[in-house]
Amino acid sequence: MTISGPLKGIQILDLTSVGMGPMATQILGDMGADVIKIETAGGDVFRHVHPQRHKGMSHVFLSLNRNKKSMVLDAKTPQGQKIIHQLVRQCDVFISNMRALALSKLGLDHETLERLNPRLIYAVCYGYSQSGTYAGRSAIDDTIQAACSLASFQGHNKSAPEFVNTVTADKIVALYVVNAISMALYERTQSNLGQFIEIPMFECMTSFMAVEHLAGKGFIPDLGHTGYQRVLNPYRKPYASLDGFISVAPYTDEQWIRFFKISRQDELLGDARFMSASARSQHIEVLYSLLEQIIAKRSNEEWSQLLSQADIPFSAVFSLADLVDDPHLASIDFWKEFDHPTEGKIRMAGVPVKFSRTPGEIRSPAPGLGEHTDEIMAQLGLRSFNIEQ
User: Fold this and answer.
1) Quick one: residue 361, left, alpha or beta (phi over 0 = left, psi -120 to 50 = alpha)?
2) What residues contact 354, with CB distance under 8 A and at least 6 apart?
3) What is the C-alpha to C-alpha distance for residues 74 and 41, in angstroms, rounded to an integer?
4) How far apart are CA 201 and CA 125, in angstroms?
5) What span, in angstroms and rounded, lies between the C-alpha atoms of 120 and 114?
6) What's the rounded Cα separation, in Å, for the pair 124 and 139?
7) Of 169, 296, 168, nearest to 239 (Cα)?
8) How would you classify residue 344: left for phi > 0, otherwise alpha for psi between -120 and 50, otherwise beta?
9) Average of pLDDT values for 33-58?
10) Which of 197, 225, 279, 291 makes the best surface tag, with the fewest CB within 10 Å?
């Protein structure tokens, strides 16, 4: 198949597993990169969660590992390390979510691989920076949500901290990984040199949370506590209408004025508490509590018509199951269906980012464990053998 993505010609050696690294390399693969995924004989852990039709081909593995080739080898053996070194010589990017000490023990540290390929972009993504106090500490999405203040803020209006009901840290940091690798590849066009990139989850997520929530602590001396009050407002939520739930979010002065008009709240027009962004910020809890009361008076369909005509941000609350049949997503052919060679018919999200000249695409579904081992060995000029030995 002809590759047309913006990363056409880039080869990536992928030693990541679970969520963060595989999501990053899936995005890079969607955009045209040739991704070689190295797995042990047991395979990526995410191969084995449920639901799945066949062992080792779970729903989440299918989602995260399209546009990749799978090669099985044991990086703990001299032969496995030799093969990885040969692959490094021809690759543009090496990415791993193993911690620094583990990589060093395997002879896969940056210094070793840089000698083999000075143009190599060497990217590592793990829990905590190796230059800090927490260096080497193990981490997964749950522990990073706890560490970076996300769980604390998520439970702000409740009796205890809570996790977000998606692997938020994994997926957000995956985007940092994609950005970092893309920028390093661009810089290499000028310097002709690779470089070491560290993408630590704790630091990335702390930066992510600080954007709005550093608040008063962003000033020295402090101008108050942490936390952006509009977001922490207990009335910021989907509101109950007469027949369901809907998110309504007037934001600008003009949108609030239009909202008060279409909801027939004439007494609120001209209310000094709500007529400017600064005033609304100081009275946000009162304003959102009023919003909740107003929304309860009409149905979702009525609100959808009124809010659409008034050009005010809104959306009914949908489940992911609802979105499989969403008319907008259907109109842009968002959901893609494939006949997987072992898993039968499958559905997955398409490539959401559109390029006019070099579009990304789904070229191949997630591979079986070790499906491309012989092919890659042949490309290296090596005969096939039991590479777990």
Assistant:
1) beta
2) none
3) 8
4) 7
5) 6
6) 14
7) 296
8) left
9) 96
10) 225
| Predicted confidence (pLDDT) at residue 366 exceeds the cutoff of 70 | yes
pLDDT on residue 381: 87
Query: Could you tell me which of 240, 231, 246, 245 has the C-alpha nearest to residue 285?
Result: 231
pLDDT digit string, tens, across residues 182-221: 999 999 999 999 999 999 999 999 999 999 999 999 999 9
**Integer Cα distance of 51 and 97 in angstroms:** 25
pLDDT band of residue 4 (cuts 50, 70, 90) is confident
Reference 16, options 143, 123, 111; nearest CA is 123
Report the chain's mean pLDDT, rounded to a whole number.
95
Compute φ and ψ for 39, nearest 5 degrees: -130, 155
pLDDT of 3 over the 90 cut: no
- 3-state DSSP of the chain: CCCCCCCCCCEEEEECCCCHHHHHHHHHHHCCCEEEEEECCCCCHHHHCCCECCCCCEHHHHHHCCCEEEEECCCCCHHHHHHHHHHHHHCCEEEECCCHHHHHHCCCCHHHHHHHCCCCEEEEEECCCCCCCCCCCCCCHHHHHHHCCHHHHHCCCCCCCCCCCCCHHHHHHHHHHHHHHHHHHHHHHHHCCCEEEEEEHHHHHHHHHHHHHCHHHHCCCCCCCCCCHHHHCCCCCCEECCCCEEEECCCCHHHHHHHHHHCCCHHHCCCCCCCCHHHHHHCHHHHHHHHHHHHCCCCHHHHHHHHHHCCCCEEECCCHHHHCCCHHHHHCCCEEEEEECCCEEEEEECCCCCCCCCCCCCCCCCCCCCCCHHHHHHHCCCCCCCCCC
Q: How far is CA 95 from the centre of its chain?
A: 16
> 59 falls in which pLDDT band (50, 70, 90)?
very high
Burial of 127 (0-12, 13-18, 19+ CB in 10 A): buried
- pLDDT band (50, 70, 90) for residue 384: low
Q: Is the pLDDT of residue 143 over 60?
A: yes
Hey, what amino acid is at 281?
A: S
